[in-house]
Amino acid sequence: MWAYIFSIAILAASIYALVQGAELFINQSSALARKYHIPEFLIGITIVAFGTSLPEFIISFIAASQGNVAVSTSNIIGSCIANIGFILAVTALFGAIKINKANLKFDIPLSVFSVIIFLVILYFTNGQINWIAGIVLLVIFAAYFVLVYFREKNKSMESTPTHAKIHPFLIILSIGLIAAGGKFAVDSAIDLAGLLHISNGFAGFTILAIGSSLPELIVSVVALKNGKNALSLGNIIGSNFFNLFFIIGISSFVTTLSFNDYIYELVILVLYNLALVAAALIGKKFYISKREGLFILISYMVLIVYLFYR
């Protein structure tokens, strides 16, 4: 009994440290970006997406370095699916998410193609991502952000100037919280999986994926409530790019990652992206409504139940 309580307490404290560290990093980095008049959407898909993806990165990197490949890979794929099936769905429950024409014509289709490209790479590598394939992923990652930069660089800021002060110490503190939180989150999740008699992969896909995605939820809901729909959607799309191409690319330098057990989940991720297009065109056009958000959330819960009994 006490072992359960201890593991849950450590896991909760670790995730809290991850969230607080990510929030500090986002606030300080975004303040620095706004000081130099970087467009809001660009902040969403770069600085904010990187900051909110730091928990996933640290968890996956630490798990890979410890030899827990199942935790590393399941956390990455689980986080990508949770970003849409859980984070975006819950955000929509707080208010309809606007999808502008640029998102519909460029960002969402590119998000779909990115997963397809990843599946193609897996096909030619027999489901194994080694450091060579990792370099390919990082090149694609860099190319995407160069493309987005040139598309967005002439756009003006959509938000009011920030009054937050920039403190280098807080940036260092945030990185420390994220690193420590990630280490203990991995260890406690593995311990809890053993106590509950579930696989490390399922623990990574659910407990760690949802827990490490909490920064995305916080940022997306706050952005939506402040009327920054571009930042909300840009954060989610950008985070999935970071997960698939940057995190996997970097983690592959530590050890070869196997994704043979997650082809089905990657197909689900493609379908979720296509669901965004359908949601934008059906019903209230160019919006993801509360009803559509609820439908996506229910489908995510069904997926989790299915994976538990699979």
Q: Span between N and C termini?
A: 27 Å
Radius of gyration (CA) equals: 18 Å
Average pLDDT over all residues: 80
Largest sheet: 2 strands, antiparallel
Report the count of strand segments.
4
Weakly predicted, low-confidence segments: none
The assigned structural class equals mainly alpha
> In sequence order, what are the helices and strands, one letter per element?
HHHEHEHHHHHEHEH
Percent of residues in beta strands? under 5%
Instruction: Please tally the helical runs, counting DSSP H or I stretches of 4 or more residues.
Output: 11
CATH architecture level-2 label: Up-down Bundle
Mass-distribution shape:
globular
- CATH class membership: Mainly Alpha
In the CATH hierarchy, the third-tier topology is known as: A middle domain of Talin 1
> What would you give as the CATH superfamily?
NCX, central ion-binding region
With strands numbered from the N-terminus, the spatial order across the biggest sheet is 1-4
Share of residues in helices: over 70%
Chain oligomer state: single chain
Our count of domains comes out at 1
Short description:
The protein has 11 helices and 4 strands, in the order αααβαβαααααβαβα.
